[in-house]
Amino acid sequence: MFLNTSSQTRLIQRPSPPSRPRSRLGSATERHEWLLFLLLVGPNLGLFFIFTYWPLLYNGYLSFVRWDLLAPVKLWVGLGNYQELFTSPDFGKIITNTISFTIAAVGLTCSLALLLALLLNQPLRGRTVARSIIFSPVMLSGAAIGIVWIYILDPRYGLLDVLIRAVGLRSPNWLLDPHWAMPAVVIVYVWKNLGYAVVIYLAGLQAIPRELYEAALVDGASNWARFRHVTIPGLSPVMFFLVLTTILATFQTFDVIKVMTNGGPVDATTTLIYYLYQEGFVGFNAGRAGVTAVVLFGAMLIFTMVQMRYTQRKVYYS
Amino acid sequence: MSQSRLNRHQISRHQFSPPQISRRHLLKGLGAGVGMVALAACAPVAPATTGSTAVNAPAKEKTTVVLWSSFTGKNGEAETALVKKFNESQGDVALDYQFQGSYEETAQKLTAAIQAQNAPDISLLSDVWWFKFYLNKALLPLDDLLTTANADLSDYQDSLINEGVRQNKHYWIPFARSTPLFYYNKAKWAAAGLPDRGPETWAEFMEWAPKLTEMDGDTVKVPAFVHPNGGSYIAWIFQAVVWQFGGSYSDPDFTMHLADEKAVSAGQFYKDSVHKDKWAIPTKDVTVDFTNELTASTMMSTGSMGGVKANAKFEFGTAMLPKQEQFGCCTGGAGLALLATTPEAKQAAAMQYMLFASSPEMTTFWAQNTGYMPVRKSALKSKEMQDYFTQFPQFKTATEQLALTRPQDAARVFVPNGDQIIGKGLERITVQEEEVATVFAEVQTILETEAKPVLEALKAVEG
User: Fold this and answer.
1) What ipTM score was computed for the predicted complex, to two decimals?
2) Cβ of residue A26 closer than 8 Å to a chain B Cβ
3) A-chain residues near B441 (CB < 8 A)
């Protein structure tokens, strides 16, 4: 109703423009509207500029200087910081860590969540309780979860060790073995964020019209065929949304890493964002942290653009 | 959609438009409201200094001094009590104590606060941080204030007070100063049939170690000893070991020695302890492991003693660090510094607290509650401290060792991130089993590169 009224208002208040030529802000009404527009948008734009765009621009500047965040003078080094980062022996490892963390965390979160959502979408007893349990870690703070998991993962007295021993295996030294630290961080990340993805998938599943399943059934489609040709296309916008937001979130995951491993052992869990923190706020090297931020921003931007373009063609929107 | 399109043509405007307020008026009002809120948020806040006291009109207004500090748990409680004692002890200064997180977080926030021109008056700064602020001229030389306040500097432990001196000026007053100390679990010692004392030498400890290590198949279940990891200051503890092996990280002029033979042999000793002789493991938190009987012994800060005493359910002993070629032990911990931005009117008041916190009575109180070193010579001789030694001989060992300590190497405390750079190298050998000489040579190169800007800055500041 509201939509109708406003459309009507617009129709009546804005008759088709008269033929006389006018400047862009010709009439008093238009100037008025322009002012109103500025008044409404201004505060938001101002905040965006101060807290988002300005730091972005300033970071770009910092990536060209050498500065310890305290000295009154910032020394201009041109592309020196870029060269230093790209030729640093750590850089390759950090990129590999970031990519492997992202692939593992996104892959596991999105696929496990889909399985759980399909299960919880069935009319099973106790599914409301199960949904709540699965969702609950989402509400906890990453730092608190990290601390609890340090104890769970300890190979000497941890809960997980008890479970692993029960099946006749030995627990690895999760957080102190460079080969196992990344899997440990991925497990905790997935455990924390799975519930969110499940809820989004459930909403997506429930939005798929029942008639489509009924029609497929009448056509003699098997379970798999219905999943492949009705559920998957129906869920594709939700999947797209989840994959994209999870990728962006994993690029920025900091709390769990900081609390559980401090980026170690021996850089095994140092991702781009953690490296940025280390360089900027432990080493107080604003230039190197600035370059890292530029790389991270560039990666996220390119990734988002490619994905948007690619998925727009593939995703089925009803 | 089709329904709404139908309606648009069927329903005339006046049927639905509100009679009094038009949509535009409403939006205008909202817009103005948002603007007002935004403006109000930017408005300067009236200084909240003496609101309520002004009403009571006291004879003299108190000077408020802001202190930033970093202690949690048992040590945090002791510091809060110390501040309370100060505020109750006099009527001129009100100390506003603000907890800022770990040593690192305090340094990070202080950097940001200095940029925002909103720094506290006094800040606790750890051994690896105060120098950075000194180099940036963010700290005030304290000598004039110390003279005015009639401070007896000769009563401070020489090794501790002298660490905060640059070009004959004091910048860093010792407060929560510590040293590494050897801690052992007496029950495990007795079970292994060992004498109730720490090992004299590392060779002796290596004879004891197999008796103290509990194995689970071929993996170590409860080791004889635990090493901290990079994040928990392995480079601090290992510095003492390098000295014991006759080496060092660097000279005071930043000439690096990590790749020298003696330092490499100390590194090899650490590597073998984990991978060849298997009596030690690296761990995330040595205090947690020791307190929970997950190791027979370790080296950790004297500042952990308060926590161990409160939480350990077994009897523990302390000993001086074992020797190798010689004895070696470094100082550590944190001191208090006065920020250069502190207004002149507050400087004397701030100094009053710094002297109070390091006074013989208070350093005794602080040391007994935390395990940090008494920073005053007279405090060590006091009756309270002597009585305390009888009750708690573990602490006596720590103070006896203090006399034999020496200040840390520039590579760890003055090179930006030096502690973490060396710590990562040590993780590469203890955790990743890499070759010591190669790793130390690489770490030395990094330290030399990172030291360059410090040397330049030092030249600019000290000439």
Assistant:
1) 0.78
2) no
3) none
